[in-house]
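Students often ask why we bother encoding 3D structure as a string. The short answer is that it lets us treat folding as translation between two languages. Here is a chain of 216 residues written in the first language.
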Amino acid sequence: MSRLTLAVVASSLVTACSLITSLDGLGSPATSDGAPPVDATQETNANDTGTGTDAGTGNLVPNPSFDDGQGGCGPSWGNGYGMTYTRVSPGRTGPYACEVCIQGSTSSYALDSLVPIPVDAGSYYAEAWLMTPDGGIAEQGGVGVLIGYDIDAGISSCIGTPGFCQGSISTPPSAWTKSSASFVSNGPGTATVMIHTYGGTPGSCVIVDDVAFYAQ
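And here it is in the second language, the structure alphabet:
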């Protein structure tokens, strides 16, 4: 059965597991709350404007630029925890993007895609573009794309714990920067895209746009 119910997506895949709430445990076994560790050495390059594949074809993420629908950040997005999410304009490549902000005193939060993506054996690539709102508080703990998966045969070529594949994380600057993750599925299953933060700085927000998931 799925460890997750996705974003970063009909129960949320995220509710089946708890995520890391601090960068303190990166590279070590799961934290005391059961969160998967991530690699603190992975960071995005703010000057990297490339993509892992042709962004014009084959994107498996529904509503990847948050341009469709009304309310929240449009259909197929939400269902994370400890956050609010609102469509803002303009986006990186279209009319809208999704602004995600911490809510209350939670120590981390996530935006989830609500649609599990079927995968077969093979190589996959995911990315999301992030930035700090103009005049807003940057998420100091780091933000990145996180892939949750339910693949009985497992995956390889990925940093993370069973059930999660952690992409590059960074503190988004005031310009768009990319977070990305690559992995190899060893068999059929489903994957879920989440945009997850690892600090929960009070009052902080991150803007997300152009989320993608490709078979390579």
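Translate back mentally: Residues 14-44+57-176+187-215 form a domain with the Jelly Rolls fold (CATH 2.60.120.260). Keep this in mind for the problem set.
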